[in-house]
Amino acid sequence: MKTLLTLGFALLATVMIGQEDISAKVAGALSKGNAALIGSYLVPSVDLTILDDEDMYPKDQVVRKLESFFAKNPPISFDIKHKGTSKLDDHYRIGDLVTKTGKYRVTFFMKKGQDGMKIKQLRIEDYNGE
Question: How many Å separate Cα 94 from the centre of its chain?
Answer without folding.
Answer: 10
